[in-house]
Design a protein that fits this description.
497 residues; mainly alpha; Fumarase C, Chain B, domain 1; Fumarase C, Chain A, domain 2; 2 domains; three-stranded antiparallel β-sheet; two-stranded parallel sheet; elongated
Length: 497
């Protein structure tokens, strides 16, 4: 059970999102929400104009709404903004959306009732996942359209998945033993929609997959390095002392440790230098490690931020601002997408080496009977196709902006697209790492697995359990998928990075 108090760690978020850990809301967080809600009611009692609470939205902010229509105003907002399109977000991403929306409210600046947040928490715990279309957010006034689809379920409308079935929102809640909110109180519709939780959820899931892909890729690269009888001199710490970028130094040290004691490395004497995808592993993957490390701070700040508007302080002051703007998430997603695309490129290049290393003692395409058999020839085609897709997806959306709401919202981050792309790239890269892993498993078996370094033997044994030994041509898609699933779930990892 993860207790939520508004101070969420990355490890706790990963446990909730990827391992389905349940959550509960701390008493202190409930007290903060109550104080903010009471402050909002006091402001309204004084008759002050509060954006989105007793006024219209966006370009309609000058229109005052009568007191007796405030609940209908919030309901209208949710219904009118639920215009998303495209494939629904996966359940795991929706879990992250629910978690981050809850934790944003726990900052005690959104003016919502604890009952609303408790319902979100119970939906998360019981597996009621709103059907949220992936497309429709411009990433500036929050993820308005996607979050509207989430908000509909709280009032018994919209669609939701429960135990694998897609149902009406009300029916999904009923089957889970929950009841929808009878109405939305002032600002609650706006608070639900006006946040960065969908962008953050996609970025977070991409980051976690990226971390797992990099860790697995280093283990796989260490196997490929040995199967190709690579030269370890480029990993010498003196080389990296002359260019001490932290990631480069870190990756070089990890690979030295992984390869220590190998009877395969430094046994190829026909050339004085290996191709870049072996020789420059620290220089290629070091920046990927640095990018993933740097994004930790961005994620931690954002998941513990109040990102709706206006903010309602407990002492009664209402502050209009722009914490819903997703520029920082958009830029982080673009950087992550580029870094992960480079990781995938690196995997494809080593895969290509493994399939064309006759001079290093491996048969063409690792085939048992080359000519009669194609071996793993077409595995590289798949990895190359994913490289091409990642190249297109890595083109930044965050440099664009299209004004909305009659020009009132005149600079949008397009972070919904940026984070969606980053997650797609991350999934592709997991498959690219898996593709190299399959080839590395065969290549090591052909070169002599008894010659592996001590640090890579247990990693190789786990890989052997997922991929059959080299032999006659066979359908490998199931094995690739199994390795990719293992990487994505954090099972195929190597210690020391």
């Amino acid at each position: 059970m993860i207790e939520l108090d508004g101070h969420l760690t990355l490890d706790a978020a990963e446990s909730v999102v990827f391992e389905n850990s349940p959550v509960k809301i701390s008493l202190q967080a409930q007290e903060k929400m109550i104080a903010s809600h009471r402050a909002l009611l006091a402001v309204l009692k004084d008759g002050k104009a509060v954006y989105g609470v007793n006024t219209g939205f966006g370009a309609l902010s000058r229109v005052r709404v009568p007191k007796e229509e405030l609940s209908q105003l919030q309901l209208n907002l949710v219904r009118s903004h639920a215009v998303g399109v495209g494939e629904p977000l996966p359940d795991r991403v929706v879990r992250a959306v629910l978690l981050f929306r809850i934790n944003s409210f726990l900052q005690g600046a959104s003016g919502v009732r604890p009952e609303l947040v408790e319902l979100l928490a119970e939906m998360l715990n019981r597996g009621v996942y709103p059907v949220i279309p992936a497309q429709g957010s411009v990433g500036a006034s929050g993820d308005l359209a996607p979050l509207a689809h989430l908000a509909l379920v709280l009032i018994g409308e919209g669609r939701a998945r429960f135990r694998g079935a897609e149902l009406s929102g009300g029916e999904a809640l009923r089957r889970a033993g929950l009841s929808p909110l009878s109405e939305l109180h002032p600002k609650e519709g706006l608070a639900l929609l006006n946040g960065t939780s969908v962008m953050l959820a996609q970025l977070f899931c991409a980051w976690v997959l990226g971390q797992r892909a990099l860790t697995a890729a280093l283990g796989v690269a260490a196997l490929s390095f040995q199967a190709l009888r690579g030269c370890t001199q480029p990993l010498d710490p003196r080389v990296h002392a002359f260019r001490p970028h932290p990631g480069q130094v870190k990756i070089a040290e990890a690979l030295r440790n992984f390869l220590s004691g190998s009877a395969l490395t430094d046994t190829f004497a026909d050339d004085v230098q290996d191709p870049y995808s072996l020789r420059c592993l620290p220089q290629i993957l070091g920046p990927v490690w640095e990018t993933l490390t740097r994004l930790r701070e961005t994620l931690e700040v954002e998941m513990n931020a109040a990102t709706d508007n206006p903010l309602v302080l407990p002492e009664g002051e209402v502050l209009c601002g722009g914490n819903f703007h997703g520029q920082i998430l958009a830029m982080a997603a673009e950087e992550l997408g580029i870094a992960l695309a480079l990781l995938g490129n690196s995997c494809e290049r080593r895969l290509n080496l493994l399939l064309n290393a006759q001079d290093r003692g491996l048969p063409p395409f690792l085939a048992r009977t080359p000519g009669k058999s194609s071996g793993l020839m077409v595995l590289q085609y798949t990895a190359a196709a994913l490289c091409a897709e990642n190249k297109v997806l890595a083109h930044p959306a965050a440099v664009d902006t299209i004004p909305t709401s009659g020009g009132k919202e005149d600079h949008n981050s397009m972070g919904g697209t940026s984070t969606w792309k980053a997650l797609r790239i991350a999934k592709n890269v997991v498959n690219q790492v898996a593709s190299e892993a399959v080839a590395a498993r065969w290549a090591v078996a052909l070169q002599g697995e008894d010659k592996l370094s001590p640090a890579t033997r247990s990693f190789y044994e786990r890989l052997k359990a997922l991929v059959p030994p080299p032999g006659e041509d066979q359908d490998m898609s199931e094995h690739i998928a199994r390795v990719a699933e293992n990487i994505g779930e954090g099972g195929l990892t190597i210690h020391g990075i």
